[in-house]
Amino acid sequence: MSSELNILVSVAEQTLELRKGNEVLHRYSISTAANGTGFQEGSYCTPTGRFIVSEKFGHEEPIHTTFKGRLPTGIWDPCECCEDDLITSRILWLDGLDEDNANSKARYIYIHGTNHEDKIGTPASCGCVRMRNEDIIELFELVPELTLVIIS
């Protein structure tokens, strides 16, 4: 695992903290799954436990870039209504370290930007951890791959 940096996600508080040891460097509002927590494939639940950032996608892409299969596909226009659950700006792909969450990478559990920034602070995702686009870009630049992530 990488450096002293770690990420702590609180499902109860709908927050993500970037920490160095026990010092909170940044705190962000987030959105976890509308269906709550869980580990089952197809449950649309956010898994809990220990993870690492296994891969990062979106480096130097413009804000609001949309991704499909982790490849950039266009730019989302925030002025246009879009009900789809878009993955935008940056992706931190999580890999579970615990027996219960070991399927997280295969479930495509990410920390990513969203076109539903109005729902940040409430459980509304399909299992991933959603962040505001400016926030995920900032976090993306600060954390290397292999950073420890704890979702509780």
From TrEMBL:
The active site is at H112, C128. InterPro entries: LD-transpeptidase, LD_TPept_cat_dom, Transpep_catalytic_dom. Pathway: Cell wall biogenesis; peptidoglycan biosynthesis. SUPFAM superfamilies: L,D-transpeptidase catalytic domain-like. Keywords: Cell shape, Cell wall biogenesis/degradation, Glycosyltransferase, Hydrolase, Peptidoglycan synthesis, Transferase. It comes from the Bacteria. Residues 5-152 form the L,D-TPase catalytic domain. Belongs to the YkuD family. PANTHER family: L,D-TRANSPEPTIDASE, L,D-TRANSPEPTIDASE ERFK_SRFK-RELATED. This is L,D-TPase catalytic domain-containing protein. It comes from Rubritalea halochordaticola.
